[in-house]
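Case study 2.
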Amino acid sequence: MNILISSTIFFIIYLLGRSFVLTTYNLKKTKVDELIIFDTKITLFYPILGMFYLGNALFIVNFFLPLNNKIMIGLLFLPILLNIKNKFYNLNLRDIFTQLSIFVLINISIYTANFQYDAGFYHLNYQNWLRNEKIVFGLSNLHAPYGLSSISDFIASIFWVNGNFIILHTIPIIFLASLGSFLFFHLTSKRNTFFYLSSIFLTIYMFLDNFGFNGGLNGFIQISGIIKPDQGFAVLFYFFTLFFIYTLNKKNYEENEIFFLACILLFSFQFRITSLFLFIPFSVFLIIQRKSFEKTIITRIFTTLFLFFLWTLKSFILSSCFFFPVIISCIDSAWGNSRSAESFTGHTLSFNNSYVFGENFIEWVNEFLSWGRNTTTLLNFVLSLIAILIFSILFIKGNKNKIKTTTLLFVIYTVLVYLFIWILGSPDIRFFYGGFIFITSLFALKKINHKIIINNSFIKNSVYVVFFVSIALVSRIDSYRNLISNPLPLYELKVPNTEYIYDESRWYYPSVGDQCWINLDCVPNKIDVIESRNKIGNLVFSRN
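Prediction:
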């Protein structure tokens, strides 16, 4: 039942992505399912584009309405009708089967899925606010993390089913499955040297994540529990950086590819504010190359800019900050100021042991490495890179080429700025998943424009075996055990029973800890706010 329901959701999201391409991409005389972007079938990106459509549709709707089931039905079924109108029967069943197979293998992890701490701390309750209220002014005054507002929360809010939250696990799996489908396509097609080599190296990297010191883990994307935006952000970050490098090395630019880059960049930003720094090189590229683009691309780029504006407006309404928790982006409003951002930033930096200017950097590094998981992950990451380098030297033959200056500058900029943000912000391993897979793919740069030869046929074929073994190992052994022992019933995941303390005011507090789960009347800490409604019916929380 779990696999059947999740697979159905995957297929619906797939159709949403197809409808998005039908309505926004310039197909000319090309059949929609035959469209190629970045030397890749567009069908491989349908699930991600479907998520992009769904997330943005939901957050726009929330300006006017709560996200209830009626809204969900309207959003889901209208695009399906569009697919039926546009030769639904011509769907590429082989592509769907391949993607669905990869999705199912990874989704077996649903049998050991559980909540991570932040689910009870703020994610689920924020989703509950989305379900019960249109956009709330000053919501971060209740609980500062509400100001983070990832687009994954908008998507997750419509997948609550009778108190069972297990379907929320499907969301990150869709992104991981899209990455796996991309790797498999280029491993088998070999139509693009850069993507082919990147896929080989990432396959090796994914495989080695299961081995190494202290049981493995080398920084490859982990399924960290329900519900974090880590996986979605990492995959989107990887796709944007990989495709942007490819674009920088092209002479002619395709409108559909540029639009895809804009969508993916915006989507990654909506997952996590970290990717804001990537807007700079992309904007510079658009300005320099503006004469190379068709006029129609301008309208489509402005569409993504409009969504960017709405997203920052949403952030301002929630927190009085355009880019929460960046303090300099906060301004005084009727419902707030920078206090929530300052409080949240201070707590986060302290909790994650972030580096502070003026500290002894060597001492900070030693303290960072004293956390066992950090040392294990970084050591295994380095060993994985060495293994990939040895593999490349032994088995991959082909001419090397000089890397373009613009490409080199982008690579250096991305690695250094990402590291800078990570170290000064939240140096948790999971926040650097995108960086790990991006760095791994850089081993393919030297041979980006040349034909690659792998002389050893055994090695060439073994890559396919390693790929499927790696995909299968994403779900841990316990997941397979639970599937085999109890395959038919729907696996359930419900919030724990929690006792709350009422302080004779408006709010309840958890009797133990700081997790409110799905209680809208609960806040983790005592607050002093004024509750009201504005003239158009929005709930407003302002500091007293």
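Residues 102 and 180 are 7 Å apart (CA to CA).
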